[in-house]
Amino acid sequence: SAEYTTILSEVRGRVGWITLNRPEALNALNSVLVRELIDAALAFDASPEIGCIVITGSERAFAAGADIKEMADHSYAEMAVGGPFPGWGGFERMRTPVVAAVAGFALGGGCELAMMCDIILAADTAKFGQPEINLGVLPGFGGSQRLPRAIGSYKAAELVLTGRMMRADEAERSGLVSRVIPAAELLDETAQVAATIAAKSLPALYAAKDALQAAQEMPLSEGLRFERRAFAAAFATEDQKEGMRAFTEKREPNFTHR
Ligand code: CO8
Q1: Would the ipTM clear 0.85, i.e. be above it?
Q2: What lines the ligand 1 site, CB under 6 Å?
């Protein structure tokens, strides 16, 4: 949309694309970029025409973290009262699946932004890390919580306490990244993954994402009950009838997202 200055936002079929675009600062997340990113993402999330959201950066950087220059002089009170970036709660509660396509640096808030997405695809040039410790602080966008859940507590501790970067292949082995893709093919491959997702039944996608998120937060017994109710509820959709009818008729389903 034309009014954005730090991101590009574009609809391709049923996929909403957001490209972080502050090349002069390696896509560092300043308050304008964060506001625009959340605004664009929530608009896609609210649209029944969008079945998947992609967030990507440039070849050099997904995002090199929160904008250190903007943040440096903030007081305790300013950070405690929401900081420069209110609104993440809405981003984290989006129902639409979100794919992060990471090339180059995904550091600090950049790594944390990728971890707020459901799937992380990485170019072979990607570098992940939580270097906040080098700045005399600690991760502040969820890194100390999501990284241990993603890669295990001991490996996360090493990364958070040393601040070192992890290359794409190590991130894939660790389970942070689902696939490493040659850099030149990252966007095409991401477009295919996103289009594959976006073609599915939207209510089924919402329910599946909801259940996957519940798995991060609930004990197993509660999560299994959550899933069981969601599975039963899926039988109230037209898409369930269509999906199962299409299977028995040996044809592709024609989902209407209802
Ligand atoms: N903030 C501001 N500017 C940045 C940032 C950043 N995070 N990263 C890079 N830039 C700028 C540089 O200052 C430089 O600008 P200029 O040309 O005007 O000097 C430009 O981008 C290019 O960067 P470099 O010249 O440094 O490029 P290199 O290739 O030499 O190095 C690195 C690339 C290694 C990525 C290096 O730029 C770097 O270390 N960046 C900082 C990484 C970092 O520490 N990130 C963590 C930031 S803290 C954070 O994310 C906390 C999140 C929680 C916030 C919670 C709020 C509620």
Answers
A1: yes
A2: 25-26, 28, 64-69, 83, 85, 105, 107-109, 131-132, 135, 140-141
